[in-house]
Amino acid sequence: MRALGRGAIFNVSSISGRVGIPGIPQASYAASKAGLSGLSGLSTELAMQWARRSIRVNTVAPGFFRSEITGPLHEGERAAEYLRRDTPLPKEGTAR
């Protein structure tokens, strides 16, 4: 990217980096995602360092989808209601 004089880096974060999620006791995961994004996170710092070379650094948090970590959130009606209420898209995301 440096040789080309442009580029883009996309980091994948999670809502877990911003709020605690009951039923998913993953402190290390949450800490790593919080460090990746946010006002003083790695992505922000790298974006500032590489901007002069036209290299963009961004973070995306794709939302909930079924995975090993979120498995407990998909069990039971209470958790399903939480996901329906707090997920803006009408369909569940999938990993491909």
Q: Going across the major beta sheet, what is the strand order?
A: 1-2
Largest sheet: 2 strands, parallel
Beginning-to-end CA distance, first to last residue: 27 Å
Number of domains: 2
Count of beta strands: 2
List the total number of helices: 3
Show unreliable segments. none
Average pLDDT works out at 83
Task: Describe the SSE topology.
Elements: E1 7-12, H1 27-36, H2 42-50, E2 55-60, H3 77-86
Parallel strand pairs: 1-2
Give a written overview of the molecule.
The chain has helices at 27-36, 42-50, 77-86, and strands at residues 7-12, 55-60. 30% of the residues lie in helices and 12% in strands. The protein has two domains: 1-62, no CATH class; 65-96, no CATH class. It has 96 residues and is of the alpha+beta class. Strands 1-2 form a two-stranded parallel sheet.
